[in-house]
């Protein structure tokens, strides 16, 4: 119940962040909807396809899409409000990040995958939507550039794996891991932590030309 | 029979629109072929993967790829002809849009999906190829920007869902829905209808830097 | 045994080429890792999903990801070395191209696909990773532009199909096809062979605006 509520809040925050990007790219209202939807359910869809959970979860459950539509209506109807509340969106987005890390890891473990698969699918579930959002906006995904975002998700997945070797019951270790991801992400936002960008070693021919 | 012919015309128009984009991005002939193929079969491939129809339809049926190769040869051999006949391409592309909306919706219903799944897969089938085409060209997909394209497809899928509650036999309601999509798209082309683009609420840091 | 070694060399070269692109786009270390991983296993992942080989091979086999991590550490720790040894990377990348062409074609034939499916999946396996790498870097995939790369892979796949009608035992014809791909790619690199880019027939509205 509390989990479902968090799930919905996470989806809603992801959808708002997609809708906001759609506004900034000056898409039409339909394009804003597609970006919101792709951001909200894109990561889970890739995870489900890769794990053979066909059809993906949101196609047979109305609430997710209704939340995405609601987020789109807010974005299209009140763009300035959305812009002003970006801090709130980022807060719920961090909750989504922690929650989907745990959901992705859990689904991978249910299918019997080992450490590599668990970390990869936790990260895809939590970060895939944001990457698709940026690809559709023809931008290099922001999570690849300089934010502590996917790295928080990976750390959380590694924690889940490590805690399996302790006496902690599974719900406790999953909750603890989710909280670590959320707190790490919020701290990174608060104190502008980021991984340093690499310096390009040599300018490449390809970089200037498009 | 007539359906197969329309199917082939739709694929061919999709392939030509992909090849034309390849010419404009000054790809090599192989790149033109890949763009034509991705545009023609990309949407149906995503739909089939998501529905578990493995392997996707075009991998075991030679005619689709032959049509794509033919479209590529025309594009590479007669680029100016292709440019001049763009109106004809858009006409058949509209037919493809209507047809693939209906095909996608039908396949989703066959798998027992509800309204959300039917609309999503109708739209993916009809518009996915064009979105992949634009992504491979490193552009924001045109259907997200200001054209009545995906919105026509969504409307058609909703119509299919609505007409299920009437006494109309399925072939009639499917045909009617396809015609609505095609006519709406052609009217939008003829009268330059489009959804209004959203104004960016505040200029974002990310927009200028790439 | 020798095959496994070649497989690992190919993955490693693919990962290095992805990591190098990540450096050039000035991603953070995590972004470099994601680009290395996507380049190394992206093509095989699409192939496995399309063929229904779920979950994809690398999710349940640690060595591939360890090689990708090693490539990322080299890239992040010694960017100038990576830049200077680009010729070596391209050499092993060519071996990967030949090898994955054969692996992709073989897996498609195992699933009973015909010529279209064999060529398509051979090419996706060999070239898909590089295309995803460039998409994540928000660039038009280089293999679509002017290099003999995917065309070498397609030629190799056609050769595999053609040699089935001869008396040659399968291992011989597969090895021969792989060698043809590798040699063709190396010759193209050595002598700067490329397919000519298409001239854009007419400047299009869409090209200037983004």
Structure commentary:
- Three copies of one chain form a homotrimer.
- With 210 residues, the first copy, chain A, is an all-alpha fold.
- Chain A has one domain (2-194).
- Helix content of chain A is 73%, strand content 0%.
- Chain A has nine helices and no strands.
- Chain A has helices at 2-24, 29-51, 62-77, 79-84, 86-110, 115-136, 150-163, 170-190, 205-208.
- In chain A, helix 1 packs across helix 2 (29-51) and helix 1 (2-24) crosses helix 5 (86-110).
- The first copy, chain A, is globular.
- The model of chain A is unreliable at 204-210 (pLDDT under 50).
- Chains in contact: A-B, A-C, B-C.
Topology record:
3 copies of one chain form a homotrimer.
Chain A: H1 2-24, H2 29-51, H3 62-77, H4 79-84, H5 86-110, H6 115-136, H7 150-163, H8 170-190, H9 205-208
Helix pairs in contact in A: 1-2, 1-3, 1-5, 1-6, 2-3, 2-6, 5-6, 5-7, 5-8, 6-7, 7-8
Q: Assembly state here?
A: homotrimer
In whole angstroms, how far apart are the ends of chain A? 50 Å
Overall form of chain A = globular
The largest contact between protein chains, plus residue counts on each side, is: A-B, 39 and 40 residues
Number of strands of chain A: 0
Q: Output the structural class of chain A.
A: mainly alpha
Question: Helix amount of chain A, in percent?
Answer: over 70%
| Poorly predicted runs of chain A | 204-210
Rg of chain A to the nearest angstrom? 17 Å
Count of DSSP H/I helices of chain A: 9
As for the number of domains of chain A, it is: 1
Task: Name the average pLDDT of chain A.
Answer: 89
Along the chain, the helix and strand elements of chain A come as: HHHHHHHHH
Major sheet size, sense and barrel closure of chain A = none
Strand content of chain A: under 5%
């Amino acid at each position: 119940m509390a989990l479902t509520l968090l799930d919905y809040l996470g989806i809603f925050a992801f959808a708002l962040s997609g809708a906001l990007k759609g506004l900034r790219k000056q898409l039409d209202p339909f394009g804003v909807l597609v970006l919101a939807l792709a951001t909200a359910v894109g990561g889970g869809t890739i995870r489900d396809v890769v794990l053979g959970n066909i059809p993906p979860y949101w196609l047979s459950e109305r609430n997710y899409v209704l939340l995405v539509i609601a987020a789109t209506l807010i974005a299209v109807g009140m763009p300035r409000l959305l812009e002003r509340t970006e801090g709130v969106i980022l807060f719920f987005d961090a909750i989504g990040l922690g929650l989907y890390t745990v959901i992705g890891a859990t689904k991978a473990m249910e299918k019997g995958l080992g450490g590599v698969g668990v970390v990869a699918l936790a990260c895809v579930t939590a970060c895939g939507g944001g990457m698709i959002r940026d690809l559709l906006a023809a931008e290099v995904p922001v999570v690849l550039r300089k934010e502590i975002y996917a790295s928080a998700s990976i750390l959380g997945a590694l924690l889940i794996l490590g805690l399996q070797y302790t006496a902690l019951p599974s719900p406790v270790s999953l909750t603890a891991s989710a909280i670590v991801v959320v707190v790490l992400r919020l701290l990174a936002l608060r104190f502008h932590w980021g991984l340093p960008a690499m310096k390009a070693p040599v300018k490449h021919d390809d970089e200037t030309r498009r």
